[in-house]
Amino acid sequence: MSSRPARWLAVVTLTFALGGHWAILQSVAWVTMVAGYSQTAPLKAALVKTFDGEHPCSICKFVANGKESEQKQETQKLLTKIDFFLTSSPVRLFPPVPDALHFMPPPSAGARSETPPTPPPRTLRG
User: Fold this and answer.
1) Helix-then-strand count for the chain, H and E
2) How far apart are the C-alpha atoms of 11 and 5, rounded to whole Å?
3) How confident is the model at residue 74 (pLDDT cuts 50, 70, 90)?
């Protein structure tokens, strides 16, 4: 997935999955509204009229309806998932068997037959 089209496809898919398409559409609506209102009024008045919430355009209404319908679908999916996970089976716990753990010395512990040098060496051999 290192090719450029595959990366773009991943970005677009993630954008739609996270609801970024509504933000993009809303931004387009706001830019269109500011451009339209600024033709008949000063820029400050156009910005106020765009963001006051009392003058929504058709794209703004479409975005609001789309977000609302997605939230309803998410709520229905969540309730379905919760119902699915609430059906539980009895939980059975088994205590550990006390004789299951035994200490065994490592097999290499008895492999050395050499005794340490007497007296201990005064210098290290390298």
Assistant:
1) 4, 0
2) 10
3) confident
